[in-house]
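Quick one, tokens below:
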């Protein structure tokens, strides 16, 4: 949700998503824009691969991720064993364990009639479920950026997740 402020600065999220294959142990997001490889606004709001549009600047203030619901507990645990790195130009500006990132509304385990857990759900993102950064990460127009993920073993076939950069977008700047 964008909140407009005076001077062309809005509160904004940049997001991208991926569906992992059965053998994927690495993934890179924010490099494929809408309209390529079948990506729509549902998958990403990137207009250009790996960079902001001309005249735009963005300050990353928080991170979050959201996993498509109803995955098995084993899949969710395997997915959370990964790491992430936020790259701007040729520098890593933030890194960490996916298990340490808030995930939507947090994990909830579902079972049928009090039996064993059968599925995992991730709730909806809210302001209490963001990893706040101690300092904003600046992204300038046409400056390359991406987020890399890696896992010690493939987390599962078809697991889909979104990674979200929360911050402030400045539009129309030179």
């Amino acid at each position: 949700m964008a909140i407009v402020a005076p001077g062309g600065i809005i509160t904004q999220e940049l997001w991208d998503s991926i569906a992992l294959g059965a053998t994927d142990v690495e993934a890179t997001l924010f490099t494929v824009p809408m309209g390529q490889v079948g990506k729509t606004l549902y998958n990403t709001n990137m207009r250009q691969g790996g960079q902001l549009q001309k005249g735009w600047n963005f300050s990353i203030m928080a991170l979050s991720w959201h996993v498509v619901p109803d995955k098995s507990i084993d899949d969710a645990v395997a997915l959370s064993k990964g790491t992430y790195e936020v790259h701007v130009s040729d520098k890593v500006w933030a890194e960490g364990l996916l298990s340490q990132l808030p995930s939507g509304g947090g994990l909830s385990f579902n079972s049928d009639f009090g039996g064993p857990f059968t599925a995992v759900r991730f709730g909806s993102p809210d302001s209490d479920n963001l990893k706040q950064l101690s300092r904003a990460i600046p992204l300038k127009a046409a400056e390359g950026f991406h987020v890399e993920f890696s896992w010690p073993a493939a987390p599962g076939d078809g697991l889909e997740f979104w990674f979200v950069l929360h911050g402030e977008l400045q539009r129309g700047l030179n």
